[in-house]
Each structure stands twice: as structure tokens, then as C-alpha cells.
Specification:
270 residues, 9 helices, 8 strands
Length: 270
């Protein structure tokens, strides 16, 4: 399927069927702009709407596609093991559906892991890479309690987990972003949550130096989840990269400082 501005609005939502009958939701914006589409990939338990402010800014000059991974947002809530490779397979199926040859991948957190593994597997499909809140190796800095079987107990557990996770992920100067993201985390069903927290971060240090394309690495100055030092390690081991540290922000820098982040991405894409 090839998009045409004669039949499609400048911005619209769509569903694409991928493997196993899974349907991915995606929101297109700036459809009438030229150049490779910019695919916006969110983090674990997040969704496409977190990109809204950055999307609005980038779509003035680029065709953007904000995607919900399977199990997330408006996409199919399937009870199956998840991996960066499986999520990458879904993204490739979506690209094939629309006839996208080469794309720009902009991935945050889990989305950055999927972006790196996708690029390593199919380098000919990626024009440029934007990594936000990224790490080549990662260990969660707090221990999750055992998951209950009961949905009511699960709701209590999630509220407590969100409270304990907040200092790692959010800057205190942006309480609206913390409220918005933790509200999203609280809506994930237990079965889907179980598969998401079981998804292990792969050890990516061997493949980072092999990513031979222009890469923009973005980190929040006060991110305690994937730190600026971890972003610097990626930057230092890439053949061709730019590092941007966003002040007064943490793991969700693209929501806390959307204008600064969009400015960095825009300059990189030009």
C-alpha cells in the first residue's frame, strides 16, 4: 500500500495487520512531506500518544508515523512472549505494507532497542537513526515485586511500583509528564504487563560499533534510568554520531522538553 495525498488526509490513524493476526495502530502526520518517513517508536508500556508534541513539530517538514507496538496503546493486546526481534518484525511488516523503502527510526527506551536491532538486521532499510533514553546494556535499578494473579491486587501493585519508579524516570519540574505516563502504565492489563516486564534488554555493546549510518543520541540530563553516561558510551562507539544532552529533563526528555528534542532531530535530519 502506497500513501497518496490525493486520498489521505495530512494526518490520520490507521491499522496494519502483521503476523499472527496482530493489528498495529499507527498515526500518520505530515503525509504530504517528502523524504524518508520518520517512524516514532515508544518505550515499554508507553504508547504512540507520548510522541504527540514532537510529532506535531516534526510533521511540519517530515512524514511521521507514530506506532503502537503489539500489546501497547491501541494495538492488539496479545498474550505472547515479546522480544525486540518480534517487535522489529512487526515494524518491517508495517513498512512493507506502506511500501516504505528506507525510513528514519526514532526510538525511545525500548523503542531505541528495537531501532538498533532492526538496523543491525536490515541496514539497507534505515536511512538514519535517532536513539532517545538509550543504553547498550541495562539493568533495572529497582526490584519489581512478584506479579499477583488477581487484577485487584495488580492495580495496587502498579500504583506502588509507579511511585517507586518515579525518581528514576521523571524530572520533578514536569509533574504533568509523570502523571500522563504513569496513568498509561496503570492501564496495561495484567497478562500483557507480565509479558512486557519479562522482556529482557539485550546486550547490545557488540552491535553498536556496527551501526554504520548517521545516528543522533539524545539523553535527559537527569535521567537515572538510562543515564547520560550510557548515552555517551553509545555515541563514542558509533562510527558516525551526534550526542545531545537535554537540560532539565530525565528519561522522558522528549515529553518534558519536546521543542528542544524536536529541534535536535530536525537539525539532524536536515
Amino acid at each position: 500500500m502506497t500513501l497518496s495525498t490525493e486520498t489521505k488526509a495530512t494526518a490520520f490513524g490507521d491499522y496494519v495487520e502483521v503476523a499472527d493476526g496482530v493489528h498495529l495502530f499507527c498515526r500518520h502526520a505530515g503525509v504530504d512531506n517528502g523524504g524518508p518517513p520518520v517512524l516514532l517508536l515508544h518505550g515499554n508500556r508507553d504508547n504512540h500518544s507520548h510522541w504527540a508534541e514532537v510529532e506535531q513539530l516534526l510533521a511540519r517538514s517530515h512524514h511521521t508515523v507514530a506506532i503502537d507496538f503489539r500489546g501497547h496503546g491501541l494495538s492488539s493486546k496479545v498474550d505472547c512472549p515479546l522480544s525486540p526481534e518480534l517487535l522489529g518484525d512487526d515494524i518491517r511488516a508495517l513498512c512493507d505494507h506502506y511500501g516504505f523503502g528506507r525510513v528514519v527510526l526514532a526510538g525511545h527506551s525500548l523503542g531505541s532497542v528495537v531501532s538498533m536491532t532492526f538496523t543491525h538486521r536490515w541496514p539497507d532499510r534505515v536511512e538514519r537513526l535517532v536513539l532517545l533514553g538509550s543504553a547498550a546494556s541495562f539493568t533495572l535499578k529497582f526490584k519489581r515485586p512478584p506479579l499477583p494473579r488477581d487484577e485487584a491486587e495488580f492495580a495496587t501493585l502498579i500504583r506502588d511500583a509507579n511511585r517507586r519508579a518515579a525518581p528514576l524516570f521523571f524530572h520533578p519540574g514536569h509533574p504533568d509528564v509523570q502523571r500522563r505516563v504513569t496513568a498509561c502504565w496503570s492501564t496495561v492489563p495484567l497478562a500483557v504487563h507480565r509479558n512486557l516486564v519479562a522482556l529482557e534488554h539485550p546486550y547490545l555493546r557488540p552491535i553498536v560499533p556496527q551501526l554504520d549510518l548517521p545516528v543522533l543520541v539524545i539523553a535527559g540530563e537527569h535521567d537515572r534510568c538510562t543515564t547520560a553516561d550510557q548515552a555517551a558510551w553509545i555515541h563514542e562507539h558509533l562510527p558516525e554520531s551526534t550526542l545531545a544532552i537535554i537540560p532539565a529533563s530525565a528519561h522522558f526528555m522528549y515529553m518534558e522538553q519536546p521543542a528542544r528534542v524536536a529541534e535536535q532531530i530536525e537539525a539532524f535530519l536536515q
